[in-house]
Structures are given as structure tokens and as C-alpha cells.
Amino acid sequence: LDFSLDKANTANVKWEGWECKNCKPVSGSSGHFQIGVVDTNTDDIHSANTLGTDKDGLSMRLGADINHWGEHDTRWILSAKDLGLDIASLAASVSRAKNFSAALRYRAMARWDATVYTPFAVNSNRFTLPDDWVRGATTPMMTDLNDALGPKDLKVERDHFGLALDKHFDDIRVYLDLEQQQRRGNKRASSSLLTNSVALPERVDDHTTNYQIGLNATGGLWQVAFGYQGSRYRNDAAALVWDNPYSATFGSAFEGRQSVAPDNDADQVFGRATWTNNRHLFSGQVVWGRHRQDDDLIPATINGPSPALPTDSADLKLDKLDADLRYRVRLTDRASLHADYGYQDRDYRHPLYFYPQVITDSITRPAELALYPDKTEQQAGLKFSYRFARGISADFGYRYQRDEWENQQADSADTNRYYAKLRLKRWQKVQVWLEVAEDQRRTNGFSDSLDLNGIDNDEALRQYHLADRDQTEGKLMVQYQPLERLNFQFTLDGQDQDYQSDAIGLDEVQRYGYDIHATWYQDSYHLYLFYNDYKTKTRQNGSNISSRWQALQDDDAESVGLGFEYSGLEESSGLTFGLDAVYADSDGLTQLEQGVIGRYDDISSERTTLDAYVRYRVNEHSSVQLDFLMQDYEDSNYLYSGLSADSIGNVLFFPDFSHDYSDTRIGLSYRHDF
Amino acid sequence: ASSAWEDLPQEEYEAVLKGKFEQGNYSAKGADNCLMCHRRNETVMALFEGVHGRTENPASPMSSGQLQCEACHGPMGNHNRGGKEPMITFGKGSQLSASAQNSVCLSCHKGDDRLAWHGSTHDIEEVACSSCHNVHAAQDPSRDKHAADENCLSCHQQQRAQIHQRSSHPIRTGQLNCTDCHNPHGTLNTAMLSEHNINDNCYACHADKRGPFLWEHAPVAEDCSSCHNPHGSVNEAMLTQRTPLLCQSCHAGVHSGTPVSQSGQDAFGGGRSCLNCHNMVHGSNHPSGKLLQR
Fold first, then answer.
1. Which of A477, A639, A651 best tests the B interface by mutation, with the highest count of B CBs <10 A?
2. Are the CB atoms for A133 and A247 separated by under 8 Å?
3. What is the C-alpha separation between A372 and A387, in angstroms, rounded?
4. Which residues from chain B sit within 8 angstroms of residue A293, using beta carbons?
């Protein structure tokens, strides 16, 4: 069925009587603004991910959503959310539909990891130790270590600034989109000298500029789009240098040096088109892109003079070509056939050089040739869809994929996938979806046990992204709607990935779980409830060439959420209530068996979030809102639970930074609607 | 009398509407005819608060020379003469298929990010435009990012579970939205991603991982999702497995395959595990960085 406007039979329309006297579009401004304060009580900066700020105490909070209709149906929109907090957004736009639009946007994002304790002071990209630092061969021998530990927040703030312009010329639209992303803060990092390592709160200070220009056109049965996308990443740091806290066993290695993310450029041009007459559909796209990087190389050594390098700068290029085609034909009213083809090519283009491998200033390995993982991927699929009767339909599909690699352990792989999907939507109150799929990947031409890094592995090793694999998937989804506004949904999901059991690497990954979700809407209230439980079991075989071992990771994640909003008292008392509560628990058990069974400590997290509000309507235009946000959180990770800075002789790590807190935010705001 | 129409099998119901559409028996006075009865309905009149209710923009269905209400709801025919002859309707209560409803919307809203709608997963799964959008409102509900995410998660339940796991992109806290990575109107890319492939999608925000690096880590350069689940994981950094076992799935040498039977004891099982030394797992730009240590 096609009710397209351009197919409407308007031959007999008597336009002279169409005055639309009762059409009264709104004009002027409407919307609301909100001004308030929040009082945040934080013990751990990690809570700021939910509370929106790590600032303890009072903060201003502003919000608005204002819409203005001006002359000639020009629309102005201003929206702001949580201005004054660390997570906030602001957007302003002016537009006339199908004519022009201009939009400015700002988004402040942040990620809070933890407050860690480190003896290093961060000074630009140098990490320095106190003047009276006592070096040691091992961390327990660094006698001033515990006194030197000072707090450092691992927090990365990210600001997005955007400008979007577009203009329509009949059926042609041209657009320009600019975006600047700026990141500042510190993140977890490590660095090493031979067999000793240190944890560092690496400074993050970089920006990325993305821009896109393009043209979209529609005409008759055609739609086409052309465009260019560019991206420039610039890192303020060129390298990361740190005082060596360990005794300089080798020569005068008093400092360590590590590379950082290089400045890089990405450019791509694309063309897309669709043609459809409802019976036939052709779609396709071609995308050509290049990633470039030409940072000056840092010395191969850490402290002493560097051996000569084959080139001064990286001069790396990666060319990419993506092409996709899609065809669909409606064979009958009941049957259709879909076919698609995809091609992806990744080709590194740059001179191949041998680079000196300096382990410390006085220990070198032979120069190594840098090799690059070129790849070509082709996919073709065929799907037959059939409607057996009203509300009963099914898909039957086949997909073939061919991967070809260079400079990897395997040459190529062929994957065959078969799948089917049944939809039962025949009944008013119940809908059912059932999906099953199976695929087999068979890899060809394993070269030898050397990996790309030139490291000798157990010859039975099969890296999981290259290895032979059988995969089975199934999914059942049932929707039950006993009343018009009451809806239940149940989802059961499972997947099994089976690798060769006699190979080293992954053996089997099983994922399965279910989800129950219910919603109930009425005029005066809205209620939702969900519960889910997903498990993942991962079995792997390991080897250090001389002996083999097995490991099991047994993960269980569940979450339950309840929320409601009640406005039934608004007319009588002016009150509206809302509550959102979520409990989420992630647990992982890890077991390793090599003759005897060893178990790792826990990896777990338990989070309860409560978000509640009560709003009192003072009059038609004004209301006051009190809100309360609380997060109770506890986690552990076997890698650092109970760890002190000197627990491991050759690892100067941050002391245990597991989280255990209960932080809150209370807000009071005034809202004016107009 | 309306129930008689509602009891019609869908094929017959659609055939009636198709016949009306082809006959083109439009009202004598356009929207004024419709609003004689429907102007007391708040939902109907909310159209004039939004962009579809404008009268001075020729692109609006309510402007002069356009078919006004009947642009979307089809010719009135005998709808106003008793018996409530059916009109084209939208939303959950509609007896029309999603593709029939969508044909109305897509006749104006084509091109741009809807270019690949036809043949996309949401098209095939009969997702109606009105599942997410409402033209009889001051603001389209999909402008509320939180509500839009809820819309996605109401079907994509596994992703709902994952965003509540130990590590995930900050979707549940509203910093990111599903549409920051996916285009629900369809693309020709994997998983309706906005960018052309998985890695380009990640690089849109993580350009520091883009390289190319002097020393590449092959699975990273090939597919970020080899090691990360972008929707969430019980492990840190959305890793599909935890260290050192993740690394040991692919490295089984004398050094790298050392079994760690107890955690927290040494450089392999404590701190950042393998990353204590091999920090540059996303690629190294150090001339001596072949082992991704520098």
C-alpha cells in the first residue's frame, strides 16, 4: 500500500473552498525555564558519573526549553539542561522547515574513574618524583614511597561544540556540520622499563575537529547523497616522560619515556543512492577514506643517544574502501527477496622500515620490520521473506563472508551463516518473534606460531578473531498486551560460540539470559518495571609452550528497575511525584586449572540508584520541584583489591581504588512555564 | 457503526482505504470540514503547536495549496456522513500496516538520513514512524533523548541489560544516547551504525585510537569489538573478558602464556596485569614499540 502524497488523486479537489479558517497555528514564545540549586554530598568522585558533578556542596543548575514561532513560520528553539553541573548541554537553533536551519550546540561530558594515590607529581607531560626520593630495586625498598603518595583524580572532561547549517533548494539540501571535541584530565596508564613498571595518571589534553559537508537530493524515485567528512586529532603531548623510581640497574636509565596517541587526520568521501518503485529497491554506497599520521618520531632510547632511525617521521597512511549494494524485490504480495553485497578493503600504504628495538639503553634487540595488518572483507547475503497469512511471516536467509588478511597468522576465512525468523502478530494482544541462526567460520592457511609481534606461541594457538568457530544463536520475544495501556514483554536470548577444543585460545563462549519488562500508562500515572539476568561462561585453553592450562570465567549480571510518575493529585493539591529506582549487580568468578584449581578474587559491582522528585504547582505558570538522587555503589576487582603501592616488587601501582560509597544530591528548583 | 469497520479483516480494511485514496473524494472545505467535529479534541488541535500545523510555509501540509488534514489522513470520502468510514490513521491503534502508514510520512521526509530506510531492519520489522514520532504535539517526543532511548530499549532488551552492567557507555546517565552511534532510520552499514564501519564509529569520539600507528595491534586495527562490547560488560572498560585472560586468548608464548593461578600476587595478576607493561595495546608510535610497551 502506498499513500504517498505525490500519488494522491487531487483532480477533483475544489481548492477555492479550502480556506482553513479554523487553522490557528500558535505564534510567539512558549516553553519553560528552570533555575535552582543542588547540594551534592560526595565521598568518591566516581559517583559524579551519576550525580553530574564532583563538586561537593552547592551548585547552580539552569535549564530551559523555549520555542518561539516568528514570522514566515520561522522557528527558534533554545534548550538547556543542567547548566552549572559538569554534565550539561545547551542547544540553540533557528529553522524554517524544508528551507534552512542553523544550529549551535554544546555538550559537556565527563568520566570519573577514581581518586588514586601516586608519588608522581604531574607537570605537563613529565611525571616527577620528590627531590628526596629513595630509589629501590623493588617497591618495598623505596622507603619514602608511602609518605610520598598524594591524591590525584582520574577524571576526563570532554566538551563538544557544534555548528550545523543547512539550506534547501527545492529537492536539494546542502549542509555543513562542524564539531570540536576537547578533552582534559587524567586517565589510568602504565609504563615500564625492562621488567619494572609504574602506574601513571596520564595527562589528557587533546582536541578533535570533525567537519562534514554534503549534498542530498531527491527526485522521483531517486534519492542521492554525496559528501566529505574530515577529522583532525591533535594531542598537546608528544611523549610521556617519567622519573624512574627504581634503581637504575642498566646504565643511567633515570627516566622512562613512552609514546602517546599521535596527531592524525582522517578524510573520506562518500556517495549513496537509492532507487525504489516499491516493487524493486536498489540502494548502494561507496566510501573512500584515508587515515594519515606523520608525527615526528621520538628517540628509540630512553635516556642516551638514539641509534639512527630510518626516517624522521612516521609517514603512515591507511586507505579504506567500502562499498555496499542492496537489492529487494517484492515477488508477490506475500513474498519478497533481499540480496546484498558488501566489500571492505583496508590497505596500509607507506614505506616498510626496520626500527631498532631498544629494551633499555644498554639492551637492544635486532631491528624489526614494522608490518601492517591489511584486510579485505566481502559479504553477500540472500534473504527470502514470506507472509503466510495475516500476521504470520518469516524470513529465511543465508550469508557468506570471505575475509582475507595479510601479516596475520591466518591467510583467509570463509563464513557461512544460515538464519530464520518467525513473526506471529496475528492476535490483538500477543505478538511473538522467534529467531535462530547458525554460522560456521573456517580459516585457511595458518602460517606458523609467530604472531605479528614476532613472538613465538604454542603452535596450537588460534587467535579467536581468526579461528575456526561454530556459532549458534536463538532469541524469543513475546509481547502481551492484556489492556490497551498495559504491556508485558519477555525476551529470552542465547548464543553459543564453539571453537576447536584442542586448540589454544578460546574454547567456548556461552551467553544467555532473559528480560521481563512491563509498562502501564494511565492518564494520571505511568509505571514501569524491568528485570533481567544475563550470564556469560567463557572457557579457554592457555599455554606457555611448556605446559597447558584451562580457565573459566563465569559472569552473571542482573538488574531490576522500578519507576512511576503520579499526577493524580495535581488538580487537588498541585503535587506530582516521580520515582526511578534501579539495582544492578555484576559478578564474575574466575578459575584457572593446571593440575590444581586456582581461583581469582572477586570482580563485582553492586549499584543502587534512586532518583525521586516531588513537584508542587504554585499557579498556572509556576512550580517548585524538590529532587533527590542517591547512588549506593560498591565494587571490587581482583587485580587491585587489597593492593598497596608496594605490594608487588616490580609494579609501583596505585593503592586499592575499589569503590564503596553512598553519595547523594538534593536539588531545589523553580520552574516557570509560559 | 465504527466497530463494523474495526472488525474488518486487515486486507479488506486496507482495500477500503486504498479505494478511497484512488477515488480522491476530498472534502469541500479542507481542514475546516475536519475541524467542525475534531476541533474539541486537544490531541488534534496540538497539531497547530508544531511544525506540521504551520500555514505560511509551503512545505507544511496545512499551508495553502496543500491537502491539509487529508494530506496524511487521506480523502474524507463519506467519513463525515455517518458510519465513520475509516481514514488513514497512525500509531498503535491503527489497523494499517506500518509500511502503509510510513508511506505517508516518507513521501515528504525522504532523502537525508532516511535515504537507506527502505530495506533497513526497522523497515523490514514494520516499525512505524509513529512509534517514535508524533506530529500532533508541540515538540516531537523523539527530541527528548531519554524518551528516545527508552523507545529503543523497549525492543532491544539485551542492550538495556548491558547498559546497567559494571562498565558501559554512559547511556543510563544520559550523557550519550543510542542515536549518537546508530541511525534508527536505517543505513547501509553494519547494525545501522551512523559511520561506515564499527571502528569509524568508535573513532568519532576516540580519535586518539585511530592511528595509524607505527606498530599496530592487529585485532584492534581490525575491529574494536574484538575486545570491547560497546553496550556494556561485567568487566572494566567494557572488555569482553578480563585481563590477563583476554590477552592470553591470543598470546600463548613462554612469557605471555604464564598461567596466573592466583590474583594480586605479581605483575601478571595485579595492578593492570599485562597492561602494567604493555600499556599501548591500541598501538604504539615509539620506534622501539613493537611489543606495545612504549
1. A639
2. no
3. 48
4. 211-213, 285
Cβ neighbours of residue A28 closer than 8 Å, sequence gap 6 or more: A68, A69
ipTM of this predicted complex? Answer: 0.94
Amino acid sitting at position B110: K
β strands within A136-195, DSSP E:
150-169, 172-193
Answer whether A369's CB lies under 8 Å from A363's CB.
no
Size of interface A-B (CB pairs under 8 A): 505
Sign, CA dihedral A451-A454-A457-A459, equals positive
Distance, CA of A349 to CA of A318 (rounded, Å):
6
Q: Distance (Å, rounded) from C-alpha A150 to C-alpha A473?
A: 50
Is the CB of B42 inside 8 Å of chain A's CB atoms? no
pLDDT per position as a tens digit, A169-178: 989 999 999 9
Note whether B31 contacts A258, CB cutoff 8 Å.
no
Average pLDDT score over chain A: 93
Distances A86 to A60, A110, A246, A663, B163 between C-alpha atoms, Å? 11, 7, 38, 16, 21
Higher pLDDT, A390 or A364: A390
A217 vs B262 pLDDT, higher one: A217
- Residue in the block written with cell 588460534: A462
Q: Tell the burial category of A447 from Cβ atoms under 10 Å away from its Cβ (0-12, 13-18, 19+).
A: exposed
Contacts of A515 in chain B (CB under 8 A): 157-158, 160-161
Spatial contact of A633 and A598, defined as CB atoms under 8 Å apart: no
CA distance A344 to A339: 17
First to last CA, chain B: 78
Q: Do B288 and A357 touch (CB under 8 A)?
A: yes
Terminal Cα-to-Cα distance of chain A (whole angstroms)? 43
Question: Distance (Å, rounded) from C-alpha A59 to C-alpha A36?
Answer: 9
